[in-house]
Amino acid sequence: MPGKFVVSLTCAKDSTDNATVAFVVANAAVASDKETVVFLSTEGTRISQKGYADDIHEEGFAPLKDLIKNFAEAGGKIYVCSPCFKKRALDENNLVAGAVVVGGAKLVEFMGEACPSVSY
After folding, report:
1. Region of 15 on the Ramachandran plot (φ > 0 left; ψ -120 to 50 alpha; else beta)
2. How many domains, in total, are found in the chain?
3. Cα separations in angstroms, 29 against 3, 52, 73
4. Could you tell me which residues come within 8 angstroms of residue 30 by beta carbon, excluding any fewer than 6 positions away?
5. Which domain holds residue 84?
6. What pTM was computed for the model?
7. Lesser CB count within 10 Å: N end or C end of the chain?
8. CB burial class (10 A; 0-12, 13-18, 19+) of residue 7?
9. pLDDT tens figures, 27-83
10. Domain holding 17: CATH number?
11. For residue 38, what are the β-bridge partners?
């Protein structure tokens, strides 16, 4: 079922449950032949940093670092909110695979019209 799909994630270690489920859903979308973007904003931007998710493993799910890796390897894209990223003084040279720092206009452009999305 081709099309586009967006998963918006606003949390990180402040809600590892939500962070994990967001990437579970993103992996399901990309596996369903959807062009999929995970949009990291506010605290979620921290997940864009290599090593940050290494110790996040919710019971019953794959470790978050594996979910992120699998998503990127399957062709998923990770958009990282530029102002949120800068506010937290994160390192653009330390991004996980598939991640790119973007402005809100890039997300709006991707979504276009009738693009389903979920938020965590």
Report:
1. beta
2. 1
3. 10, 24, 13
4. 36, 71, 74, 75, 76
5. 3-119
6. 0.96
7. N
8. buried
9. 999 999 999 999 999 999 999 999 999 999 999 999 999 999 999 999 999 999 999
10. 3.40.1260.10
11. 7, 78
